[in-house]
Amino acid sequence: MLKIIQNILILTITTVTFVGCNSQTSLQEYLIEKRDNDKFINVDLPVSLLKIDSLNLDVHQKSALESLRKVNVLALQIDKGGKDLYGTEKEKIKQILKDGDYHELVRFGSNQKGASVSYYGDETAVDEVVFFGNDNEKGLVLLRVLGDDMNPAYVAQLLSSIQGVDQDNQGFESLMSLMK
Question: Are 98 and 117 in contact (CB under 8 A)?
């Protein structure tokens, strides 16, 4: 009987050790890791900086805006010294999105350039939306929108209304400079 208990205990400890040693990198860990790398452009924007609240929003769009917290942007430009990193970083991001708990909404493009939109959370209460775009000549961009129980339909309405935002404000100016 003591031998059985000892074997069960050893098996339990071994299982906990293997489960606890998860080598899979999360998107958050990846963003933090790249924060100190000068070849990457890394910007964290609170939603308030974008000054979207100045728009005439309906109830659903206001609800979507209130559910947003922060936007993380990570970019690697090939012409700014990122050519040697581009291929490996592109594959790392793809693997993180594939292995994590992200659900892909859409993917489009070719071998030369492409983009995908994924989300983390429940279909009706999304906590994170991730846009990943890559271009073999320009580089890559990773845009992560964090929120609390975001309703995808309301967020889509909000994004369509953002087209009317004054693009001279500082938040949009920062985002647009990454895309040049």
Answer: no
